[in-house]
Design goal:
alpha/beta, three-stranded antiparallel beta sheet, about 25% helix, disordered N terminus
Length: about 400
């Protein structure tokens, strides 16, 4: 399992080919799965297995959906592919931008990569789904972005829209898979009808326990986007990976998830974003603390300040807060303990806790969690309410899994 002690800053296979058919897994997938189970070699990300996908790029014009995490043995995928004479037409960047230096929710503008001269088009601004004009000069789209396993982490929403655009425009998609650092957990409420948003596009649990490659197969197989059954999808799995493997990311996936501990705590702390409590944006330890100025959630003190690249205007900026230092906490998965404790402390103090209920419900994927908390239900009661849907989801996703779970 992922370590709960690492606060060290992160540095800022075989192919499964899904042709336009309606059934889910081919014999190739099962063959791949078997080899992944029994190989004793080192874990190898999809991008680092060029023999499995370079042949697909010969004579093709290629668009990349990448960011700062898209490294192959210390080299960015853009440079890696250019060195192998791949014709790249453009880069398309998700939330936080191509270099990963924009804060959460900041609009990303189009530009040019100064190193290569390639156009960089934003998929996190006015345009979140690639337009026909954006893909007109490309034959293949490569998606290679590190995810963290939480439904509200928007890279998988970008994946959804890229797959849909590719299907509609008859473009092939190649997903270069990477491990899920929270892959050992499948937990939380399923996103319900009426709560779809960019922080929850598909009906999956808050912690889905899948890799980007597995999710791409499920999105296609369950036809969660337009013309899904026409999409030509190639997934390059991570070699020698299981969901129980500890995987500390070599590159920070976004400015406010700088280390393994923040990634471990993120699923449990993200719902605080819809409350009056700070999770440490604007500090050196985002998503590793909680605090408030009026309700002392603990004895640890910190003061959020403006940080241009990660938190230009953090919650409770320049105010001294009192709360908990979680940099060595063992909380993991989707832990409701801190949320319920804080709710009760705010209730006793007569202070507003959930100040953005609509956003809380979008992050949760349902309004039942918020209503259960407000009704005073215990964590055990709340968790019990998720179990039937989680059981059904685990059965539903089974045909799309590429790796042993444990």
């Amino acid at each position: 399992m992922m370590t709960s002690k690492s606060t060290k800053p992160l540095k800022t296979g075989l192919a499964v080919n899904l042709r336009p058919i309606r059934w889910c897994l081919s014999a190739t997938t099962l063959f791949v799965f078997s080899l992944l189970c029994f190989s004793a070699s080192a874990l190898t990300i999809g991008a680092a297995q060029p023999d499995l996908y370079l042949s697909q790029l010969q004579g093709k014009k290629v668009a990349l959906v990448v960011n700062q995490t898209s490294e192959v043995e210390g080299t960015h995928l853009v440079d890696y592919l250019l060195d192998k004479n791949v014709t790249i037409t453009k880069v398309m960047a998700p939330e936080h931008g191509f270099r990963g230096d924009a804060g959460a929710g900041e609009t990303i503008s189009d530009g040019v990569d100064t190193r290569t001269g390639l156009p960089v088009l934003s998929l996190y601004g006015k345009t979140k789904k690639p337009s026909p004009e954006m893909l007109a000069d490309s034959d293949v789209i490569i998606f290679d972005i590190q995810d963290v396993g939480a439904r509200f982490y928007t890279y998988i929403s970008t994946l959804h829209l890229v797959l849909e655009a590719a299907a509609e425009q008859q473009k092939q998609v190649i997903v270069l898979d990477r491990p899920n650092p929270n892959g050992m957990f499948t937990d939380g409420p399923i996103r319900e009808e009426g709560f779809a948003s960019f922080v929850g596009m598909d009906p999956i649990p808050l912690l889905h326990g899948m890799t980007v490659g597995e999710l791409a197969q499920m999105m296609r197989g369950e036809q969660w986007f337009n013309q899904a059954d026409t999409l030509e999808l190639l997934v390059i799995p991570v070699a020698n990976y299981t969901k129980s493997v500890t995987y500390d990311l070599p590159v920070a996936p976004s400015p406010n998830l700088p280390n393994a501990q923040s990634i471990q705590l993120y699923p449990s702390l993200c719902l605080f974003e819809a409350t009056t409590v700070s999770v440490g944006r604007g500090t050196p330890f985002p998503f590793q603390v909680i605090g408030h100025d009026k309700v002392a959630l603990g004895t640890f003190s910190f003061t959020p300040i403006s940080m241009p690249n990660s938190a230009p205007s953090p919650k409770l900026q320049d105010v001294k807060l009192h709360g908990q230092d979680l940099r060595r906490a063992a909380n993991e998965g989707f832990d409701l303990t801190l949320l319920l404790q804080a709710f009760n402390q705010f209730k006793q103090a007569g202070e507003l806790f959930i100040d953005r209920p609509d956003f809380f419900d979008k992050l949760s994927g349902t309004d039942t969690l918020r209503k259960a908390i407000e009704a005073g239900q215990s964590e055990q009661q709340i968790r019990a309410s998720w179990q039937p849907a989680l059981k059904q989801f685990k059965q539903q996703r089974q045909p799309y899994l590429l790796y042993p779970e444990f």
